[in-house]
Fold this sequence. Notes:
The protein has 16 helices and 10 strands. By secondary structure, it is of the alpha+beta class. It has 2 domains: about 1-175 and about 210-245, no CATH class; about 260-390, no CATH class. The strands form 2 sheets. A 7-stranded antiparallel β-sheet has the order 6-4-3-2-1-5-10. Strands 7-8-9 form a 3-stranded antiparallel β-sheet, with helices on one face. Helix 5 (about 120-135) packs across helix 6 and helix 12 (about 280-305) packs antiparallel against helix 13 (about 320-330).
Amino acid sequence: MRFKQSIMVMVLCFTLHLSPFTTMAQELPLSPTATASVITCGPGNDFYTTFGHSALRITDTARGIDLVYNYGTFDFDTPHFYWTFAKGKLDYCLARSSFDHFLAVYSFEQRFMYEQRLNLTPQELNNLFVMLEWNYLPENRYYRYDLLLDNCATRVRDMVEAAVGKKSIGIDDWEDHSYRYWLHDATAGGRLEWWTFGIDMLLGLPTDHVCSQSEAMFYPLAMMWMYNNTMLDATEPLVFPTEQLLEDTRPSLHRSFPPLVVFALIFIAVTLLTWKHLWPKWADRVLFVLAGLVGCFLIFMWTGTDHFCTKWNLNILWASPFFLLIAIRLEKTPRWFLLLQVAMLAVALLIAVVGWPQRFNVATIPLILTLLLRAIYLIPRTPQRQQRQR
């Protein structure tokens, strides 16, 4: 997807010097006083707004233009919307609106907004305007959304890179981080514990890929920070000083009981009840069915969707569909099958502690220990018990 998108932008940049785009630029010239800006908006209260938002603003007071180009819109009326979104097949599109309307929406949602005016030459600015208008054509405005590879921020990044042409964009003082690091940063630095837990459960190994500077710009706030520190050809800044247009006036979110505490208390309770021989069989069935259903969902997200970030999810080692079979048979489960699941749990526990090759949420450790305790307890320990099972 990233390759195809890059090819599209390269072809578009090339055609800017040819007909009909040269004619289009001549017909729609921006005045010498025109400006282009990157708009960065803060997170909202809905989950799909957690990671913030990016857009491009073109202003030309001489021509009465003040437009925002927004790549982050989608249609809630899409047939089977939630199923389409879950399968990674939802198309987003480029929307164009007046800046006043855009500002009013985010003011109503009480989200902060920053503006970074781009340091572009008149030709680069005109190129950017032509590319945005070309993208806004009905046959070009739709694209297949991807959380990490192709979203509202990466589209803005690609337009800016295309506009400046061969100039180098980058910062020297750069510390490598993974996609998961930036996603944690988006959940209030990990303080939204249940959202962070859900992200870590759902997203697999690709999320632990260490991002280049360009890749990290999938996260709007990371892109804003990098643009503040980016030089063009190491001689002049990419953007002028950032201006804050709106403040975050949302009420403070109430912190819920952290998942680590919840699952640690469950582990302690299960351990005590197991020690006292008070843990009932039905509770094992409930525990294993829940773990198995989570595993089935992770397999669906891995194999049944187009999401890049949900592939190769090693959480499947402990949230295993095998638990559904164990829940059905319990003590009658073949010894080798239980040993296999115990081995998978042990590997998952090691990964959770070491944090490699995939970073597990720390709250999964008591969950893994709970499942490991009950799975080990079911393994036949004496010949007499094995005899009865045969």
